[in-house]
């Protein structure tokens, strides 16, 4: 699950970069929802994981958070 959170965060960042391209800004709304699901996956992983190394999960959460913040700022 930790790897899933990390991959989800990286994909959210890639979607954010693609949605910054002019004429592809419509993907921004989809990417915000995608990143929000990534945050939920990361929080569930943090809550259920007993592993001492939670760095991939924290990194995935941070990436999803950045994608959400940049997406919302772009929509504003």
SSE order and pairing:
Layout: H1 2-19, H2 27-48, H3 55-75
Helix pairs in contact: 1-2, 1-3, 2-3
Quick one: biggest sheet? none
Rg calc = 13 Å
Count, helices: 3
What share of the residues does DSSP label as strand, in percent?
Answer: under 5%
What string gives the helices and strands in order?
Answer: HHH
The average pLDDT value, as a whole number, equals: 93
Low-confidence stretches: none
Helix content: over 70%
Fold and architecture overview:
The chain is mainly α and about 80 residues long. It has a domain at about 20-45 and about 55-75. It contains three helices and no strands. The chain has helices at about 1-20, 25-50, 55-75.
Concise summary:
This protein is an all-alpha fold and 76 residues long.
Q: What brief labels describe this structure?
A:
single chain, mainly alpha, 0% strand
């Amino acid at each position: 699950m930790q790897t899933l959170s990390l991959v989800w965060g990286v994909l959210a960042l890639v979607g954010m970069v693609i949605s910054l391209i002019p004429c592809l800004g419509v993907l921004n709304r989809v990417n915000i929802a995608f990143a929000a699901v990534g945050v939920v996956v990361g929080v569930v992983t943090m809550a259920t994981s007993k592993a001492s190394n939670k760095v991939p999960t924290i990194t995935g959460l941070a990436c999803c958070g950045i994608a959400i913040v940049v997406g919302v700022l772009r929509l504003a």
